[in-house]
Amino acid sequence: MRQMITVLGATGSIGKSTLDVLARHKDLYEVFALSANTQVDVLLQQCLEYSPKYAVMVDEASAKQLSQSLKQHGSTVEVLTGASALVDIASDPEVDQVMAAIVGAAGLLPTLAAAQAGKRVLLANKEALVMSGHLFMQAVQDNQAELLPIDSEHNAIFQSLPLGYGQDPSCKQQIEKILLTASGGPFRGWGLDALSKVTPKQAVKHPNWSMGQKISVDSATLMNKGLELIEACWLFDVKPSQIEVVVHPESIIHSMVQYVDGSVICQMGNPDMRTPIAYGLAWPERIASGVKPLNLFEVAQLNFELPDRQSFPALDLASQAFEAGGTAAAILNAANEVAVAGFLREQIAFTSISNLIDETLNACKIEAADSIEAILAADAWARRFVEGKILS
Ligand code: NDP
Ligand code: MG
How far, in Å, is the centroid of ligand 1 from the Cα of 21? Predict the structure, then answer.
């Protein structure tokens, strides 16, 4: 029996890499549904190639366009629209695995729905977990969902932890700390003065990874590492103090686990997201991913340094938000999304992204994050707050 896969965010960087891996294993996997927001042409080509049962375009006008084009090609793919259709394709009884690769808060409801429906959730959409950590992990547990981290660092940590971690509480005593690696982004070594002048074009050009715009800017501010710190706390049930961020500019080691006996176990590989994607799809087995084998002689050197917390305050802001608990992380995430969009539209400076998040966290009222309504209300409040600041 082939596994049925829904790919949320199929037209994005992770979505395309996922389809590339799936295309190599047509005997193992079948595409059930694909989703996008507005990129009609890309989703059209994907539908023609993978023949899913459903295609969701959240934007209604784009959905109409896709539907017409598919008919012209004689395709029988059924086109759905609206955010609720994302929830439907993520929780459909026919689906085995859901790749959660929508960017930002827009992915929260369908990703949570996949967990609530007991699916294997391949989690790339870290923002969903950052916003709803406790609720999300509870949904995974209550519904016997399988949560496989796709974020390369968390996938590496997952691979480096002892077998049974998460089920057997004694495993935790073997762990000294988690070493979360960071490339340092395109502005590693830059001071605040130089950072205040960087352009969106410079910020989206990551030295090692090819990714969507939002996560590329997050990597440049180090907010990506901040979000990943929170992500790791929820995934592996640890505190920020048990995680050390290690800047490793080559992005060859994807993260490490340090054990009480002095051993440090890491996962290495070329920086290509198809490795963690293939791992998540096939776990506990392994399948070919198409990634070029690592040539250590070509790499030759691996370097490590401390993060610069002064020039890149986003890292500490994220850690503080996690410690504050409740809706603070959802507020941090929403403030970041709006500030990054403002920076990409050239309305604010690069350094204003972190400043605005700081201001938002200082001004907000933190509530318990015990319902999806409370989380969405906090998200909406933070968006309005930052939008107001950008316009003022
Ligand atoms: P992209 O921007 O490349 O793709 C985003 C996808 O989400 C697209 O399919 C897009 O559709 C869809 N989308 C955007 N907005 C909405 C919306 N409002 N409603 C529904 N769908 C929407 O992002 P990435 O692939 O780079 O990242 C996806 C997620 O994976 C992020 O959470 C990121 O942090 C995480 N991640 C990414 C990595 C990477 O290497 N790229 C590495 C680790 C994690 P459309 O194309 O139509 O706009
Ligand atoms: Mg990552």
Answer: 17
Output the CATH code of domain 3-150.
Answer: 3.40.50.720
Closest ligand to C-alpha of residue 255 is 2
The atom of ligand 1 lying closest to the CA of 125 is 32
Nearest bound ligand to CA 126? 1
pLDDT at 82 over 90: yes
* Per-residue model confidence as pLDDT tens digits over 37-51: 999 999 999 999 999
The answer to whether the peptide bond before residue 200 is cis (omega within 30 degrees of 0) is: no
Phi and psi torsions of 244, nearest 5°: -110, 125
The pair of three-digit structure tokens given for residue 392, joined into one six-digit string: 């003022």
In the predicted model, is pLDDT for residue 367 greater than 90?
yes
* Residue ranges per structural domain of the chain: 3-150, 158-320
Task: Decide if 105 contacts 379 (C-beta within 8 A).
Answer: yes
What would the two tokens of residue 39 be?
Answer: 């990129």
Q: How far apart are CA 19 and CA 203, in angstroms?
A: 27
Q: Model-level pTM?
A: 0.98
How far is residue 283's CA from residue 277's CA, in Å, rounded to a whole number? 10
Residue carrying structure tokens 């309005």:
384
pLDDT tens figures, 193-202: 999 999 999 9
